[in-house]
């Protein structure tokens, strides 16, 4: 499995398992657990969840799926903004730990920015880190202004990732946030990397995938994986689709394929040199 380096120097898998909407339907449970376990077998040992997902049902499902294999897994979960005060974080983390049936979270994220001052959330994260309840902490859905505000605060420069919406059709972060994160060696965890399935129905991508002889999901994920500091976390509850998605790691795009995708899905900075002329 290819890896991405966190600012601490630790390596994590570049391909992780998203779990939003998992654990909600009893009749899908067995296949969901089998899919997560297959992911671990195939080296996708990073699992992303949140206290929000199914009101804790996603975390509970993961707790069951990783029983006996905890040490193999890099577990990511998120705190609700309304729970992200210093004491609120600590209480929310304890609840997540119970649902996940573990004594530590590898990466704990603020899910999005709410009313609680960022300094309080960071104080909670630092206290959890000192207590060994979380190993790393980070943020999600924070824009450039938020990151600039967070950076000088106590613990602000300890942020390990920013988890953001990023895919071929959603390249807004490339405008200013991604370069800022890159300068500081903070990886991006790309969520909804296939746009919740919608990207796979876009004719531009379908046509490209057909010409190149690969499934559209593989093409979309492989494009994100051309960046050494991007972690993808596609969600699937289906073992066959998981194998299809994982092929994106095994078969990187060629320079010509990347060029073609860039022409089909131009990013916000693509027009910049022309504008500057
Ligand atoms: P996504 O991963 O882009 O897409 C998931 C959808 O695509 C599911 O409906 C899945 O259905 C389908 N799918 C997956 N692989 C497929 C394939 N090879 N062919 C056809 N369909 C396929 O969307 P996401 O769930 O929004 O994002 C991924 C993860 O990011 C989430 O699960 C969550 O962990 C995280 N996330 C974080 C935030 C945040 O605010 N931080 C927001 C959204 C998501 P099946 O399951 O039926 O295969």
Overview of the structural elements:
The chain has 277 residues and is α/β, with parallel strands linked by helices. The protein has helices at 29-41, 57-65, 86-100, 118-130, 144-150, 177-183, 203-212, 216-224, 239-250, 255-264, 272-276; strands at 3-5, 11-13, 16-18, 46-48, 74-79, 105-110, 134-140, 159-165, 188-191, 230-232. The strands form two sheets. The chain has an eight-stranded parallel beta sheet with strand order 3-4-5-6-7-8-9-10, with helices on one face. Strands 1-2 form a two-stranded antiparallel ribbon. Helix 7 (203-212) crosses helix 8. The termini are far apart. The site of NADP nicotinamide-adenine-dinucleotide phosphate has 26 residues, from helix 9.
In one word, what is the shape?
Answer: globular
Q: Count all strands and give the number.
A: 10
Cα gyration radius (Å): 19 Å
Distance between the termini: 42 Å
How much of the polypeptide forms β-strand, as a percent range?
15-25%
Summarize the structure.
By secondary structure, this protein is of the alpha/beta class.
Quick tags:
single chain, 277 residues, alpha/beta, eight-stranded parallel beta sheet, two-stranded antiparallel sheet, 11 helices, 10 strands, globular, disordered C terminus, binds NADP nicotinamide-adenine-dinucleotide phosphate
Write the layout of secondary structure elements.
Blueprint: E1 3-5, E2 11-13, E3 16-18, H1 29-41, E4 46-48, H2 57-65, E5 74-79, H3 86-100, E6 105-110, H4 118-130, E7 134-140, H5 144-150, E8 159-165, H6 177-183, E9 188-191, H7 203-212, H8 216-224, E10 230-232, H9 239-250, H10 255-264, H11 272-276
Parallel strand pairs: 3-4, 4-5, 5-6, 6-7, 7-8, 8-9, 9-10
Antiparallel strand pairs: 1-2
Helix pairs in contact: 1-2, 2-3, 3-4, 7-8, 7-10, 8-9
The chain binds NADP nicotinamide-adenine-dinucleotide phosphate.
